[in-house]
């Protein structure tokens, strides 16, 4: 069943996110040629590295109370030794609308080409975070892209668009 598979995937991704937070060692690197930042932490249970790449949006949007003050988005790519590659979209502060059981689709424009991107809510129902259902496919596109615009649906605020300068992503899928 697709819905059960989506829920299991989201549960595994949230568990992986917890493992990132629990890592005892961490090293951050910023690339001088791009806006991507990179981090490596240690999963002590599995004796392996967790790698992340993070990109903040070029813009911020204004949402109504209680999210006053500007909302920025970020694209987070994570490679975890147990869960593989995940891509997450986070908008903070906010409350992103996406069905917990069936997931949702958002519009994303990569270098002038608009497409639908299937998203899943995390198992902990974090209202600021969505998982891309096919993360490795999006990573391949991000590696060769220059500009991405994505549109997220917000509770009581309609849709908001975020621009990202994606040029220079250095990511090995392995």
Describe the structure.
This protein has two helices and ten strands; from the N terminus they run H-E-E-E-E-E-E-E-E-H-E-E. With 174 residues, it is of the alpha+beta class. Strands 1-2-3-4-5-8-7-6-9-10 form a ten-stranded antiparallel β-sheet, sandwiched between helices. The protein is globular, with a radius of gyration of 16 Å.
Task: Kindly summarize this structure in a few lines.
It is built from two helices and ten strands, in the order H-E-E-E-E-E-E-E-E-H-E-E.
Number of helices: 2
How helix-rich are the residues, as a percent range? 10-25%
Structural class: alpha+beta
Q: Over all CA atoms, what is the radius of gyration? A: 16 Å
Oligomer: single chain
What form results from the Cα inertia axes? globular
- The unreliable regions are 1-26
């Amino acid at each position: 069943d697709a819905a059960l598979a989506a829920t299991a995937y989201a549960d595994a991704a949230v568990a992986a996110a917890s493992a990132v937070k629990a890592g005892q060692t961490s090293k951050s690197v910023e690339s001088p040629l791009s806006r991507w930042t990179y981090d490596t932490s240690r999963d002590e249970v599995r004796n392996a590295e967790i790698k992340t790449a993070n990109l903040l949006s070029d813009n911020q949007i204004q949402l109504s109370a209680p999210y006053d003050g500007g909302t920025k988005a970020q694209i987070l790519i994570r490679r975890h030794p147990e869960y593989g590659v995940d891509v997450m979209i986070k908008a903070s502060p906010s409350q992103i609308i996406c069905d917990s059981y069936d997931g949702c689709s958002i519009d994303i424009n990569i270098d002038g080409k608009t497409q639908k991107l299937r998203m899943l809510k995390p198992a902990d129902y974090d209202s600021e975070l969505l998982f891309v259902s096919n993360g490795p496919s999006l990573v391949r596109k991000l590696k060769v892209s220059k500009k991405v615009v994505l549109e997220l649906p917000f509770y009581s605020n309609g849709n908001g668009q975020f621009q990202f300068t994606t040029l220079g992503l250095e990511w090995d899928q392995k």
